[in-house]
Write a structure and sequence with these properties.
The structure is a homodimer of 371-residue chains. The first copy, chain A, contains twelve helices and 14 strands. With 371 residues, chain A is α/β, with parallel strands linked by helices. In chain A, strand 13 (331-335) and strand 14 form a beta hairpin.
């Protein structure tokens, strides 16, 4: 058995799938910093600064803002299991994989799930969510549906949510498109590091409002994701009660990625994602691809397209083109899943991947492959 | 707001607390490898090889052996929530923090918890666990109790467990002291990366037997930790169903750490931990420290000692000595928690930290500080 460093270096991919994206060089560098213990005062300072940076990017004052020690789906589970249990009603908008996943997670903790389904590729009407139940404890929606490339509008729900808590999946929106946790009345938000933040997967930043904290279930069914216990470590002031060992290296990486983002400026980062997405989508349409997401609700950072069958080389299907992109050009794009498998590609242009040269490369490669 | 790379580099600690330890240089190097997507064939190969290396270190043939995408406590939660639910009985041995935590986790999923308490610092009698209930679904015990430095013997339980499943916390034992998943009849094992494996915290390697798979609850209350779903990704052969995005960089790190360990050889790594622990414990006793763990059950990788009050400098308490070690020498040792707070230190000598020169340094520093 050989150690990894003696093994040949694997390929250097351009990551244009639905995530992860390529990490910023500063993020990779941060992984090399000397390791600190999770109770070291220097690490506590770094964690506090990371959470302050997260507040800036989330656009929130919420004190309980921190990275959950697991990937984005754990952030979904954490926000749900801490707020709904047996006897609670949660309204969930579903127009893709991640809305469906929320229903699965919520039903496992015994909540009554009121599901509002919308055709994949279309946006959810905020009013339909507001009208779905007279007094839900939580209304939940995905801001940027990775599986379809659709943006669901959130602000209108927050403005009219009444006594309900608003829970929003921001996995593919945070740091890529405008998102306003406080101004839009979002009580529970979760994200992932591997999308527009330009950091490898491994953490799920969350932001939790005071109202949400006041409405926590008596005891979270999950010990690992128990927000009340984790808060004693994250926001514990000078004494930090140990809960679990924090994933130190991943927090270094997130801290560095947020630093890159804030140095560039949030507005500039949004503009860069928008410009790359615009050029990519225009270029694909010129080449005969059909956009899957509803016009006016298209995400710049995640493009979903139907591959033009008439342009496929003889004997090569849509999955075969994906393979050629990977093998010849080291470009990863995502093949669709669920109801859109075999029909739709997911092309991400997020974080450090959101550079015009990557758009140029992908379009050039497609020109060489397609007929 | 400045980016991390522009900030002054923080201190380079010798991590001799209860974990994390210092990572192997090869592990740090692995973090720098180009990022792959979680469905990339190259990444799937690397994950398969990581799991094969884990099988070698766990000493198991269990196909369902993989790193849970979160830290050690999530491995604890995962092994419990997939196997016990409402109406199931679990016997849990408690002689420290982590046995207590198992009880908390199991009670949250509605299991009947039969708790076998033993004085902290003493080992648990295997027969007491076997006698605690006539037909438990699971018998659970911590192999290496980090909070006391005690080794609980496991093999006898496995030999006489009957129809029960044996669940073992191997967080601080895996890669540090002999551990035999298959030979000892362990059905569910979980560990952490930041102890004797010499990798930063962030993953929880688990090994699950065929018998345990056959006894899974109908539906795990946790979506994120649902072993039945995760198995489709981890052991899915050529088609890997996406469950959640794997923490790629942490898996690179684990792969590299396991490579270092296997290159050195499991027996040699055990011997290195034993030699460091022996010398550390002898050196501390010579200096008036009193060992907390029961003789014959002392872990070499995690030493718990009472600090000699008569040797403290004027006006400095035991926590003050910890601070001096950190500030003057960049050495982290752990202050006790729970019932032993303020009395006991936890000194880890694990993974890359388990080097004689670190023992020499710590003993030398104590000679300079103590009176």
């Amino acid at each position: 058995m050989k150690t990894m460093v003696k093994a040949p270096l694997h390929a250097e991919r351009i990551l244009m799938g639905p995530g992860p994206c390529n990490p910023y060089p500063e993020v990779v560098e941060a992984f090399g910093r000397p390791l600190l213990g999770h109770l070291d005062p220097d690490f506590i300072d770094l964690l506090d600064e990371t959470n302050e940076r997260l507040r800036t990017v989330f656009r929130t004052q919420n004190q309980l803002t921190f990275p959950v020690s697991a990937t984005g789906s754990a952030g979904m589970e954490a926000t749900i299991v801490n707020t709904v249990g047996s006897g609670d009603t949660i309204v969930i908008g579903v127009n893709g994989v991640f809305g469906s996943r929320m229903c699965d997670v919520a039903s496992r903790c015994g909540a009554e799930v009121v599901r509002v389904d919308v055709e994949w590729g279309r946006a959810i009407d905020p009013q339909a969510l507001l009208d779905a139940h007279p007094s839900p404890k939580v209304i939940a929606v995905v801001h940027a549906e990775t599986s379809t490339g659709v943006r669901n509008d959130v602000a209108e729900i927050g403005a009219a949510k009444g006594d309900a808590l608003l829970l929003v999946d921001c996995v593919t929106s945070l740091g890529g498109i405008p998102l306003e946790i406080d101004a839009w009345g979002i009580d529970l938000a979760y994200s992932g590091t591997q999308k527009c933040l330009g950091v490898p997967p491994g953490l799920s930043p969350v932001a939790v409002s005071t109202a949400a904290i006041g409405a926590f279930v008596a005891k979270s069914p999950s010990w690992y994701l128990d927000f009340a216990m984790i808060a004693d470590y994250v926001t514990g002031g000078s004494t930090r009660a140990y809960h679990h060992t924090a994933p130190i290296s991943m927090i270094y990486a997130l801290h560095a990625g947020l630093g890159v983002l804030l140095d560039e400026g949030l507005e500039n980062v949004y503009a860069r994602h928008q410009a790359c997405g615009d050029r990519l989508q225009a270029g694909l349409v010129e080449r005969g691809f059909e956009q899957f997401a509803q016009e006016g609700h298209r995400l710049p950072e995640l493009t979903s397209v139907r591959v033009p069958a008439e342009r496929l080389p003889a004997g090569v299907d849509e999955a075969g083109v994906c393979r050629l992109l990977l093998e010849r050009y080291d470009i990863e794009v995502g093949g669709g899943q669920g109801p859109v498998a075999g029909q739709v590609w997911w092309i991400g242009c997020m974080g450090h991947t959101a550079r015009q040269r990557n758009v140029t490369l992908l379009l050039g490669a497609l020109d060489e492959i397609l007929v």
